[in-house]
Amino acid sequence: MDLLDRYLQAVKKHLPWQRQDDIIAELKANLEAQLEDKEAALGHPLTAAEAEDWLKQLGHPIQVAARYQPQRSMIGPALFPFYLYVLKVAFLWATVIWTIVAVVQIAAQTPSELTVLAAVLRVPGMLMTTAAWVTLIFAIIEFVAARCPGKFPMLAPPAAHWTPGDLPPLGQQLSGGRKPRSFAHALTEVIFGFLFLVWWLLVPRHPYLLIGPGVLYWHASPFQLAPFSVLFYWWVVGVNVVQLAWRSADLIRGSWPRPRTAQTIVVSAIGLIPLGLLLSVPDHAYVLLRNPALDQARYSAALTSINLSIQWSAVILCAISVLELLWGIGRLSLDRYRKHAAAMR
Amino acid sequence: MTIKENIFENLRLELRRGCLTLAVLAQLRQEHYGYTLRKALAERGLEIDESTLYPLLRRLEAQGLLSSEWREEDKRNKRFYRLSGDGEGIFVQLLKEWRAINASIDNIL
User: Fold this and answer.
1) What is the CATH number of domain B3-108?
2) Distance CA A111, CA A321 (A)
3) What's the gap in Å between the CA of A83 and the closest CA on chain B?
4) Residue A160: pLDDT over 80
């Protein structure tokens, strides 16, 4: 029957070449025997339509051929949950590293919305590359483990050699009835930290992002920022990069619900440095006159007033940071004392 | 097919998969080639698609549970299968397991 031969030829095309002749010979013998029975039952050779219906019931040639293949998957079900976990961790780490590199690159150039936009547009490509590498590595592990079972025990899924003793300890009970930080909260902090950093990097080129329409007045005004402002600016960038990296690492390690007392202390301490810089500016001259010879007489009072308000703002900010630092140190000491007392009981 | 029907169909196929292997091993205590095996199983109430049965025979043979030989019958070369020595041992174990599961289900019901 021509149609059956055409069907078998189509199946053969999708079979592994080493076994295709053998499989087709067997399938042909079985189907011809079945055809004979069918024709005997009907009392006549199958019509073209009946033959088509019969072959259609057998299934599409590709599907039929596929059933002769071993079950194939690039990453099998035993390895798949670990693959997903590693993929998530790799995404987070790639994003953190990329963010730090992007911030440094943007800072090295003149920050503009185009450089920031270009950096943001590179994110999908970076994530796809990360996913491709992780997938490739897991596909190789799966391939080797399937071909040489037991030969490479280090490639076995972690489920095969875990022990309950390796499980992490229970999450810390927060003292003082404080609620552990939720994942959404931790993630929001990272996202907003990143957005703040981008915004801050754009400010030198686009001051309207900081003072809005006041920028027109500023450009027309006789005032300018003192040179110390550049150093201050980069210290703020540095503090925020440290904080963002720390928070991202917390997110990756899964330690975001734990109290961040030590982190708060360190960040508050580092944050005091730019404030200290601000307070140590000689004569608190944060803002200078562009042309002192011409404008000294006219704008002297305004200049003093501006610098005084900046000085007081810095003092207040500094006081808040010191209080935060002391509060953090106090809380850390209290937690340690409570733990120590609990251990002594 | 509705979602419920789809869920049922998937569960039914999952339930049948292991039983089919057991039935094929049981039936191949006598020698058969693919088509007569399919007919024999159908006569006993177990219909199996060709595209499921014939590859299954190949897999079981590759696992050493069946032995096979090409032989001419009715002027046509056919591949005859029967349970191998290893296959008999596995079949007895599987049958015991299946009976235990059956008995447990009966007890639960």
Assistant:
1) 1.10.10.10
2) 29
3) 25
4) no
